[in-house]
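Before going further, learn to read the protein records used in this course. The integers have meaning only within a learned vocabulary of local backbone shapes. The record below shows the convention in full.
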Amino acid sequence: MFSFDSGLLVPMMIFALPIVAVAGGITAGIVKTISRHRLMELAQRERIAAIERGIDPNKLPPMTAMMSDSGDAPTYMTFRQASIHRSRGLLIGGIITLSVGIGVSAMLYFVADSSTDSNAWATGLIPTFIGVALILSSFLYRRFAAEDGEGPAKG
């Protein structure tokens, strides 16, 4: 009744996967932007409500360092909190990338045929060095953020 040519499935999937990935990425960006805007709006409303109830604005936490353009940082935070957040993100990414590089090197060392692919393990050095660079940049970022004079970035 229905004829299905399985030879059409693979080419269709080859072109459908990137389209779905791009559409999903755009949708995720839109949702993130809308939710970040909503969080900023709620924080501002909360601050206005506190001021209307008679709380001194100087006693409220400052709404400094609006982070609307800096990746995955929360909506607003102080300079110190933002630098710690970014430093930890670099450190986590570096540790994960370093581990992947070591794992790829170990896998290729044990799986590769020693007569033809004796240096295949070296492929894992690329993510390993990227991970080391991310870890190093985490420590450098934290050090230079502390030297900027807006507060220590240790902690």
